[in-house]
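User: Here's a chain of 663 residues. Predict its fold as tokens.
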Amino acid sequence: MRYILFFFAFIIAVQVSGQKFGKIDDAMVMQEKHPLEPEAEAAYLFSKCDIEYDYQQEKGFSLFLNYHYRIKVYSEKGESYADFKIPFYHSKKGKERVRGIKAYTYNYENGKVVKEELDKDNVFEEETSENWKQTKFAMPNVKPGSVIEVKYFIESPFIYTLPRWFFQNYIPTDKSEFIVSVPEYFTYTLVPSGSLPVEKIEKAIRNQWEGNYYQFNAEAIPSIKKDEYVLDIDDYRSGMKYELASVSLPGASPKNYSQDWNSIANNLLDHKKFGDQLGKNFDEIKPIIAQTEAMGEIEKMAHIYRYVQSSYTWNENYGVYCDDGLKNLVKTKTGDIAEINLLLVNTLVKAGLKARPMVTKSRFSGLLNTMFPTVTELNYVLAEVYIDNKSIILDASSKYVTPGLLPIRACNINGVVLDKEGGKLFSLKNPNLFKSQQIGKYTVDAENECLRGDLKLIQRQYAAVKYRIDANKEDDEDDQDFIVIPNSDEEKEEEESEDDDLEDEVKIDNIFTVVSVDTDEAALGPITVNYRTEKYNCIKWIDDKIFIDADLAEGINKNKFTQETRDYPVFFNNLYDIKTNCQIDVPENYVVESVPEDLKLVLPGDKGRFYYEIKHLEEKLLVNYTLLLKTDIFLPSDYPSLKEFLSLVTAKENEKIIFTPEQ
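Assistant: Prediction complete.
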């Protein structure tokens, strides 16, 4: 990161010559395309967050968060940036307030710039959750070419929490400023993100109090693209966050907020809404524990897990504290992620197992920052149980995931295990293997121009979990966030709408059978589905010849990784083991003209494999297809080989099996 220190006199000059609200350069309104990103739908001409502390004798310190935005709209799609939603927090400890909203739309009409002000009657407030509300409004008369200018401030009593500011956005940004004026009583640690150059200006200040002024400037900031193959794109956006380290207010004892994982562990284990819950006893649980007395450790763990999973329902709230306590969970049968999994730890320990809580971040809220430990980083609780010299990580919040697997939302990279000795970082390896096999027999139906056949689908491990989610038509988070490689091409999926499978038999066995945590079937019994199918999109007739896609419409179909380089890792939600073993009868009065050549690919480090093999035996073709991904994370240095690997896979899938009429 590049820091540049300026003299005080220059700082004054910068502030005087800064962006003045209500004054827009006509050239900005007339601009038709962004100079650096001509395809941009919109751009931030200017964005600013200025954080100030205010002190009043009767109520002490408060925070003022001042925001100023200028946005240029280039296309109809960019008009969405004219809709503003400003979230603010409220609780028993205080309430934030959004104030001072002032906004204009600028358009070039009849040879001049016309300015239209936002009508305050079009500003609304709505509640979005128990502790959050939002102020919302839509700017008037916005169209391609418009410039929008908005400013407002948020008054907050929560003086120990400063917001994170992003210089980089999903559209390009011409100039962005982040300013923080901090009283001498507060000490903060700066936590930057991203890799773009940022200038820093620093000076001492004296007004109501002595303190420090920090200003960060960034210019010509490229947009960052949304990416379904990262946990949270915000981890890679250029931005700044100040974490509170200590407070020393006049007349009060100094308080240290700088934390390590040991202090966080001690604070959580001593907290009435966390550690205190682990020692509580419940009459409803005692019979469950009694049932496990004669069981081995694996069976005991599975029995307790199954009880908690089936008896209690996750309310879709995250967090590390039990807001309503385990007593309420046992009574109502519904609770948040901390309550369900702390009850699991509680019960496992009382049954004599070695179990501890683990805290982390949910997968789609980003990577856990292990360099700057804070409780505010954490929003997820898991259970760790230690059996046969092996740690098993459990999450009983999903009705479909069994021991040895985790809901996708729980699969982060790191967690912190908590016990009396402190907090220890734990490498959370993704345990979820999407293991699927299709076995099919096809004939060519010339009359209907399709492949007709019988298929057996065998789903194991996380493939079985996904199947259960779909079969039960649950609005499950893992169903929404599931990213699987095969059949990911939306266009091809639309073509397959004619191919709806008619299921004659669905057999689901061994839903919760646990034999050993080291076997394929440890976590989940397989699901076997037998059905008849007709495939139309993978077969074509051209000049009496029959062309069939090499993958029989069961492959990846499309490589989503097309950019030349990549700046951040690729994250897959699962490991993959996909197999297709199919037989195709050679059509009557036809012969095999050609088939794709066999192919074997291995990624460097054996992180993935692909096999394609086709055999011609008498009047049948046997097609065997295997795709393996043995890791869920590919670093930027791995990206070129991953891209090439998937390109070769999709190229092979798009080759053709060709039948030609007999002569």
